[in-house]
Write a structure and sequence with these properties.
single chain; alpha/beta; 10 helices; two-stranded antiparallel ribbon; ten-stranded parallel beta sheet
């Protein structure tokens, strides 16, 4: 990462590990206190995610059914037409989404593909929705084009700690990811960056991920916390699901370490009980994805989310 983007750690790995090890009531109390100082605890930011180009990715991310390395039944498709994407965005807005996120399974986008993506961004922006894309690695020129098109957020996850990363991905380095984040930040685009837990990493690795995120020059404005969805055909297909209370601890530590960030419950929410999700909201999660699909994996149904919000007296952020 360019030197200008490195700061003295706001949170060391040991400090985050100490948070994760707190008695559960104390950890939740601290997280709730931090959350209430920055946000309305009854409001949830709602986003919708659409795969605009599915499958055939040359990367070997061990969790991903879109990798061309694995036989997962995911078909490789071409980039969607702009009008088809805008139709999906209109439908998402009607269902209450405030942000529309578009994901493409690329190592990095080609210029002619970026032309279409920029048209999608501009069209979604005109609807009054916030825009977010995840397209893989970007250079300076590409981030400039996305900013000019009106992009609000760029998603590029670190996935896990620097030490555990090589056990999950070998086709792109941790530094590659940090460099893309630096290019995004320099272009004036908000950063959406988080990770995945439940991939066999230790608690120390979870602490390392959160400490790394919190110590970026500017912490991410949006921090998705994903629970691994084990997909048949991927190297992590037999990985045991993370314990719900351990997941809540990660959410709480992320909230405390990054008090001004939106902390999003992302992949794996479909497998969580209402009670586990409620604990995550208490721990400071204040963003979710609406819709029955996250790129290629299932998501909680909108009707279930609406029912849960009603039970908890919570509502989408306007």
């Amino acid at each position: 990462m360019p030197e200008s983007h490195i700061v003295a750690p706001r949170w060391s790995r040991d400090e985050v590990a100490a948070l994760l090890a707190l008695p559960f009531p104390e950890l939740l109390f601290r997280a709730m206190t931090v959350h209430r100082a920055q946000f309305d605890p009854t409001k949830i930011q709602v986003s919708t995610l659409l795969s605009i180009k599915t499958g055939g990715c040359p990367e070997d991310c061990g969790y991903c059914p879109q990798s061309a390395e694995y036989e997962t039944g995911t078909k490789a498709n071409k980039l969607m037409a702009v009008e088809a994407v805008l139709a999906e965005a209109r439908a998402a807005k009607e269902k209450g989404a405030a942000r529309f996120c578009m994901g493409a399974a690329w190592r990095s986008p080609k210029d002619h593909d970026l032309d279409s993506v920029c048209d999608m961004i501009a069209g979604v922006k005109e609807m009054g929705l916030e825009t977010c894309v995840t397209l893989g690695m970007l250079n300076v020129e590409q981030t400039g084009r996305l900013k000019a098109a009106g992009l609000d957020y760029y998603n590029h996850n670190l996935d896990t700690s620097p030490e555990y990363y090589g056990k999950v991905i070998t086709t792109r380095t941790y530094q590659d990811r940090l460099d893309t984040l630096a290019n995004v930040r320099d272009a004036g685009i908000n950063v959406c960056c988080g990770g995945i837990v439940g991939m066999g990493e230790g608690e120390d690795d979870r602490a390392g991920l959160i400490a790394t995120l919190a110590s970026l020059e500017v912490p991410p404005e949006s921090v998705p916390i994903n629970a691994l969805v084990a997909v048949e055909g991927t190297p992590l297909a037999r990985q045991e699901r993370i314990e719900p209370l351990d997941f809540v601890r990660v959410v709480a530590a992320a909230r405390i370490a990054m008090p001004k960030s939106y902390v999003r419950l992302s992949a794996g929410r479909e497998q969580m009980s209402d009670e586990a999700q409620a604990l995550c909201f208490l721990a400071g999660a204040n963003s979710i994805f609406y819709g029955d699909k996250l790129l290629t994996t299932p998501n909680s149904e909108t009707s279930r989310d609406e029912a849960l919000f009603a039970k908890l007296g919570m509502s989408p952020e306007s």
